[in-house]
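User: Reviewer 2 asked us to show a designed sequence for the structure in our supplementary figure. I'm pasting the C-alpha cells here. Could you produce the per-position amino acids so we can include them in the response letter?
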C-alpha cells in the first residue's frame, strides 16, 4: 500500500467516523445493550462458579483449605474486571514470580512482572480488544455498518447528484440486514469456528492425549496457533462486506473474501495489526484513566492508584497493560460501571473496523457493476 493510499484510508476512516458517528451509534445501540447486559450477567455467574469451586475444593483438599483461598476481583486495563482465586496469604510458602521476558509473537518481546501485592505489569503487542466474552456480539453490527459506510462512500463519489440520494438511517440499514439475518448468523459462527478451530483441537488433544501435549514444545504450539489464526483472520476479513453488499451464498462469501485478499495478504496483515494495536492502546488508556478516577472514590480500588504510577500510565500509550488483583471483590455498582464502560469503549471501536474493511473491500472489488444498493 503506497503512502498516498495509507493517507487516504486514514483520512476516510477519521472523516466518516466524525461526520456519521451518530448514525453508527444508532446502528450499534440495540446489540451493544444486549452485549453489555450479557457481560454483566456472565461476570456474576463466573463469581458463583469460582465460589462453588473453592467450596468444593476446601472439602477435599486440606492444603487448599489451609492457604485460605477466596474469590477476589482482578482489574485489568484491557479486560476490565473479572473474578479470580486469590493468591495464598502472606506467610505461606508461595512467592511472587520474578520478572520475566517471553517471546509471544516473534520477534516482539512480552515483558511481565508481578510483585508481592498482586500487581502485574505487562508490555507487549496486545491485539485482543474483544476477547471471547459477550462483547464479541458487537461484531454482528459489522454488516449494517458496512452497508452504511458503502452508501456514504457512494454518495461522496457522486457528489454531483448527492442531493438525490437519501442519507442512510439506522432503521433502513437494519431492515436491509434483516433480509439476510440467517446468512449473517451462520456466517458469523462459521467465521469464529474457522479462526478458533486450532484452539479447540488443542484443547481436545490435551484432554484425550495429555502425554502428547506435554511432549510438544508449548512455544511451538503457540506460534503455530498464532500463524493459523492470523492467516484466516486476514483471509476471511472481508466476509462481512461481501455478505451484505453482494448476492452470495454463505460459503461463497468466504471464497469471495479469499479471492479479494489474495495477492495482498501481507499488506492487509500490516494494516490489521496496526489497527488492532491502536485499538488495544485506546482501550488500555481509557480503561486505565477510568480506573484511576474510580479509585479516588472507591476504596477497594486503592491498589490501582498505586499500580498506575505516572510512569506506568504513560506506558499504556505504547502497549502497556496493568493488572491488579484486589484483596476482595468490588461492590456491585463499581463492577457494573466498569463492565459498562468497557462495553462502551468496544462499541466506540467497532465502526473503525467496519469503515476499514469496507474501504478495503471497495478498493479490491469492482463495485461499479454490482447491485449493492437495493
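Assistant: Here is a per-position design you can include in the supplement:
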Amino acid at each position: 500500500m503506497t503512502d498516498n493510499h495509507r493517507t487516504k484510508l486514514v483520512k476516510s476512516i477519521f472523516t466518516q467516523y466524525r461526520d456519521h458517528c451518530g448514525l453508527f451509534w444508532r446502528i450499534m445501540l440495540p446489540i451493544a445493550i444486549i452485549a453489555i447486559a450479557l457481560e454483566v450477567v456472565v461476570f456474576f455467574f463466573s463469581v458463583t462458579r469460582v465460589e462453588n469451586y473453592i467450596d468444593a475444593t476446601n472439602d477435599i483438599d486440606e492444603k487448599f483449605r489451609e492457604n485460605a483461598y477466596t474469590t477476589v476481583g482482578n482489574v485489568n486495563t484491557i479486560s476490565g474486571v473479572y473474578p479470580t482465586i486469590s493468591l495464598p496469604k502472606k506467610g505461606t510458602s508461595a512467592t511472587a514470580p520474578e520478572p520475566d521476558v517471553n517471546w509471544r509473537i516473534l520477534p516482539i518481546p512480552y515483558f511481565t512482572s508481578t510483585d508481592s501485592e498482586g500487581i502485574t505489569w505487562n508490555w507487549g503487542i496486545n491485539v485482543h480488544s474483544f476477547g471471547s466474552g459477550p462483547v464479541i456480539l458487537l461484531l454482528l453490527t459489522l454488516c449494517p455498518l458496512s452497508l452504511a459506510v458503502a452508501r456514504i462512500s457512494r454518495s461522496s463519489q457522486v457528489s454531483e447528484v448527492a442531493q438525490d440520494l437519501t442519507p442512510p438511517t439506522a432503521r433502513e440499514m437494519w431492515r436491509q440486514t434483516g433480509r439476510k439475518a440467517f446468512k449473517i448468523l451462520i456466517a458469523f459462527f462459521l467465521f469464529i469456528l474457522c479462526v478458533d478451530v486450532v484452539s479447540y483441537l488443542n484443547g481436545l488433544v490435551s484432554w484425550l492425549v495429555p502425554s502428547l501435549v506435554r511432549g510438544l514444545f508449548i512455544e511451538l504450539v503457540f506460534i503455530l496457533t498464532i500463524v493459523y489464526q492470523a492467516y484466516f483472520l486476514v483471509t476471511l476479513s472481508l466476509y462481512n462486506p461481501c455478505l451484505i453488499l453482494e448476492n452470495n451464498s454463505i460459503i461463497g462469501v468466504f471464497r469471495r473474501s479469499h479471492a479479494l485478499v489474495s495477492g495482498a495478504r501481507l499488506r492487509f496483515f500490516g494494516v490489521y495489526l496496526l489497527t488492532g494495536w491502536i485499538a488495544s492502546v485506546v482501550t488500555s488508556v481509557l480503561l486505565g484513566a477510568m480506573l484511576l478516577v474510580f479509585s479516588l472514590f472507591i476504596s477497594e480500588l486503592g491498589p490501582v492508584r498505586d499500580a498506575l504510577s505516572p510512569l506506568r500510565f504513560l506506558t499504556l500509550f505504547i502497549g502497556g497493560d496493568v493488572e491488579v488483583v484486589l484483596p476482595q471483590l468490588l461492590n456491585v455498582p463499581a463492577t457494573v460501571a466498569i463492565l459498562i464502560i468497557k462495553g462502551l469503549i468496544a462499541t466506540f471501536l467497532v465502526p473503525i473496523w467496519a469503515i476499514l474493511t469496507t474501504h478495503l473491500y471497495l478498493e479490491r472489488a469492482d463495485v461499479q457493476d454490482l447491485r449493492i444498493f437495493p
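For the response letter, you might also mention the following. Residues 3-89+127-159+168-368 form one domain. The two ends are 31 Å apart (CA to CA).
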